[in-house]
Design a protein that fits this description.
mainly alpha; Peroxidase, domain 1
Length: 130
């Protein structure tokens, strides 16, 4: 019997997997950047925050990529032709209307609640360059 999961449960599942992968790969500063990205989104907007994260590389780029992967999947815009999900998200931001951008931003922030909480719980301070 297949069980139906809520959108929030699917967000949590995706975020949990992302944090476990970052933890196993010892991604430096992942926890810190997962906590910072929501404020950057609220301050500058989703597109600017993702572009900034990509410019900084390392953990910033990894967190933004995890968020982008989820947002594209949740909004059914993941065409799987792009290898870089953050770039694909930025392309979608420029192609779609303001309503889509609002939904993408809301989805990114909802996802980041899970991602930052799981990173906080799972990644020890000493393990993550903090």
């Amino acid at each position: 019997m297949m069980t139906m999961q809520t959108l929030d449960q699917r967000r949590a599942k995706h975020a949990w997997a992302a944090v476990q992968k970052a933890k196993s790969e010892s991604v430096q500063d992942y926890k810190r950047e997962a906590k910072r990205l929501p404020l950057r989104i609220q301050t500058a907007g989703l597109g600017h925050a993702v572009a900034f994260a990509n410019a900084k590389k390392k953990a910033n780029e990894r967190v933004a990529g995890d968020v982008a992967t989820w947002v594209l999947e949740a909004l059914n815009r993941d065409d799987r032709t792009s290898r870089e999900k953050s770039r694909q998200l930025m392309e979608q931001i420029t192609k779609n209307d303001a309503d889509w951008l609002r939904r993408a931003t809301q989805e990114a922030l909802a996802y980041l609640m899970w991602l930052s909480r799981f990173a906080e719980a799972e990644i020890a301070d000493g393990d993550n360059g903090e």
